Amino acid sequence: MRVKKFGTAFLCILAVGTLASCGSKTKEGTKTNEKGKLVVQFVPTNNDGTMEAKTKPFGDYLSKALGREVSITLATDYSTIVEAMASKQVDIGIMPPAAYVQARDMKAAEAILTSQLGDTDLKTGLPIEGKLTNTFKGEVLVKSDSTMKELTDLKGKKIATLSPNSASGYIYPVAELKDAGVDPTTQASLTTVNDIPSEMTSVLNGQMDAAFVFEGARNVFGRAFPNNNLFKDLKVFSSCYFFSNSV
């Protein structure tokens, strides 16, 4: 989990540093040095309330480092950060790939950086020490004792998903299932939940048969399940498409 947190924090610092070093220009072309409040917003990887407590000290750190007021807020979902960028309520948005595409198409955002996260061994699900990557994959998780073998076995099953705007939590797994001949929107039961720990819980307790998550999620959220060994209790049923990290 520290790897993903560090990736987001590092991206935020660089993005703020990049924009803070660029003043605006007057009609005569003279660069000004305006230092008003900088508003940064990002989409948290979970909604358990722990991220809110960490935004203030991080904002205080950036304010001191940049010599200007920095306000960090959390987006409630993938669409609100796009809306905030479009309405100019947010100066810097750290968002997942699908949200960025939407914001870019609305001419509300332009990517200046992408995050690098710790790479994951596709066989073990564990991080590869010292290796970073600009992309990641989606995963379909099921219980370790599941007898399903093919993607088509998900037909008629109950699947936990994230927002329809989530690349790994909805868009790409749904696309891959359709490529395999199963339309999960009509041939399975999809249930949207708040975050990945909730998805995992629903599979562990048998409420759901599968969950759409991002690559390495069992490692990232392992501490949220002190009574479970996620690598023993859950397995990767399928991996899908590579796509960009947050921007």
From TrEMBL:
Protein name, entry field? Phosphonates ABC transporter substrate-binding component PhnD 2
Q: Which UniProt keywords apply?
A: Signal
GO BP annotations of the record are: transmembrane transport
Identify the gene encoding this protein.
phnD2
Q: Name one Pfam family in it.
A: Phosphonate-bd
Species per Swiss-Prot/TrEMBL record: Pseudolactococcus piscium MKFS47
Residues making up the signal peptide according to the UniProt record: 1-20
- Matches recorded under PROSITE patterns: PROKAR_LIPOPROTEIN
The answer to whether keyword Signal applies is yes
Recorded hits in SUPFAM superfamilies, A to Z, give: Periplasmic binding protein-like II
An annotated GO cellular component of this protein is: ATP-binding cassette (ABC) transporter complex
Xref: PANTHER family: PHOSPHONATES-BINDING PERIPLASMIC PROTEIN
- Which family does this protein fall into? Belongs to the phosphate/phosphite/phosphonate binding protein family.
